[in-house]
Specification:
With 208 residues, this protein is α+β, with helices and mostly antiparallel strands. It is built from five helices and five strands, in the order ααβαββαββα. It has a three-stranded mixed beta sheet with strand order 2-4-5, covered by helices on one side. Strands 1-3 form a two-stranded antiparallel sheet. The mean pLDDT is 85.
Amino acid sequence: DPETRRLLIAVEDQVAVAVERTRLAEELADARVSAEGEKLRGALLNSVSHDLRTPLVTVIGAVSSLAETDGVLAPADRRELTLTALDEARRLDRYVQNLLDMTRLGHGALAPRRSAVDLREILGVVRTDLKRVLAGHELIIETPRDLPALLADPVLIGQAIANVVENAAKYAAPGTAIRITAKADGDMAEIAIVDQGPGIPEAERARV
């Protein structure tokens, strides 16, 4: 009947308005996500390009010096340049591995390969790999002798610790100490890395 028809048309109009409003809200949300994604991608690209270029420039400089001064440099100087290039190449390799892991993580393809590992061995590898980076700092490692073996992926855990320690060495004042401590916490282990740098500003900590 006409009354019911008018009522249905009115309801139809209200539903259409509600659907359109929802569609516009979703489009706006998608646009915001896209803009934030582009912003993050740009920031990441700038950071990555800087982090990759720094060790690459050092490697190129060291290898160029070796090539251009062949037979002129003393053996000790040649060894120093070679070690510098090797350390920076390893640093570059860590950055590339981080990028690959980030990509795998984003696609859900990063699966830890856990095994029983000794944390002291992992920290020893970190100390060796970052020897040149830590040249201006004292690295103090404090782990209890009775710390049980950890069920973890030694490569990923070592990579994570190396990232934090390298960041500490980058921002802490030369001559200051970087301390790594570990303690058992039930069936878990707590690892702390403390430096004497400026730290993260209070206002930024919630964002981190």
